């Protein structure tokens, strides 16, 4: 070696340690995507928090967002399958809403996990929407079959789940399309929901459109009258909201790009 020269040994810090479960939950809370304006109360205040915990657990288990989406699909499918296949009872009144709500929570978890891992992908978003589109239609078709098999109802009553399926399919499509157009024109899109009292009241007022509330309604499935009435009220409320919202959304998107 030449006098006066020194050598240094390269140092390595090694791979960054994965944060623990509690720290992961904290990170998810601080990086939470703002809810859309008018987001229903259960979805906004309860389901997102449950999904946050599930996303943190999935992160610890090295699951991918697509795997979480598939877990959500399996849980929802199991809950939906019970409706036409098993006669209503106290057991199904517990299992069906539990499986539907857990599937809904995992549906929230996949997006949160994607953000935690650095952002989602178009393929992941596509898979999530495909699963949701199947779920919202299959649920009401399952009710239609369940009512026909297990309930003593006039034939005209079967039009209720058919109508609800149609309304829900249109509602889901319009929501997704409007959201995509808002993303394409962020400067003209309405602000996200905030923590104000007005925003909270708005979230509560749109309860008929809340999928979480609809899942809870299935706790009445062993009580024919109660379930039929509650389910019908949910369907009628969703229809009224859709009829009122369509002109508003059309006026909103009409301004995009001007």
Automatic annotation (TrEMBL):
Q: Where is the composition biased (Low complexity)?
A: 1-17
Q: Which residues cross the membrane?
A: 80-106, 156-177, 204-223, 229-250
- Its domain of life reads Bacteria
Q: Does the keyword Ubl conjugation apply?
A: no
Asked if the keyword Repeat belongs to this entry, the reply reads: no
- Any one Pfam family here would be CDP-OH_P_transf
What InterPro entries is this protein classified in? CDP-OH_P_trans, CDP-OH_PTrfase_TM_dom, CDP_ALCOHOL_P_TRANSF_CS
- Which keywords label this protein? Membrane, Transferase, Transmembrane, Transmembrane helix
Q: Where is this region: Disordered?
A: 1-20
The record's similarity note reads: Belongs to the CDP-alcohol phosphatidyltransferase class-I family.
List the protein's name. Answer: CDP-alcohol phosphatidyltransferase family protein
């Amino acid at each position: 070696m030449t006098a006066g020269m020194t050598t240094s040994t390269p140092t390595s810090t090694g791979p960054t340690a994965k944060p623990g479960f509690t720290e992961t939950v904290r990170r998810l809370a601080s990086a939470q995507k703002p809810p859309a304006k008018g987001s229903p109360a259960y979805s906004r205040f309860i389901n997102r928090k449950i999904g946050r915990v599930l996303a943190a657990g999935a992160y610890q288990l090295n699951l991918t967002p697509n795997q979480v989406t598939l877990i959500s699909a399996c849980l929802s499918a199991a809950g939906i399958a019970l409706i036409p296949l098993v006669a209503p009872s106290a057991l199904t009144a517990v299992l069906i809403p539990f499986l539907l709500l857990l599937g809904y929570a995992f549906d929230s978890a996949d997006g949160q996990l994607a953000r935690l891992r650095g952002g989602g992908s178009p393929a992941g978003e596509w898979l999530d929407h495909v699963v949701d589109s199947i779920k919202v239609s299959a649920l009401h078709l399952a009710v239609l079959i369940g009512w026909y098999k297990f309930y003593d109802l006039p034939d005209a009553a079967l039009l209720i789940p058919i109508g609800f399926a149609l309304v829900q399919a249109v509602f889901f499509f319009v929501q997704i399309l409007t959201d995509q157009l808002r993303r394409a024109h962020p400067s003209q899109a309405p602000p996200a929901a905030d923590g104000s009292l007005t925003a909270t009241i708005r979230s509560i007022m749109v309860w008929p459109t809340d999928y979480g509330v609809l899942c809870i309604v299935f706790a009445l499935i062993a009580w024919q009258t109660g379930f039929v009435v509650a389910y019908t009220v949910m369907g009628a409320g969703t229809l009224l909201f859709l009829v009122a919202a369509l002109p508003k959304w059309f006026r909103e998107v009409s301004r995009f790009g001007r």
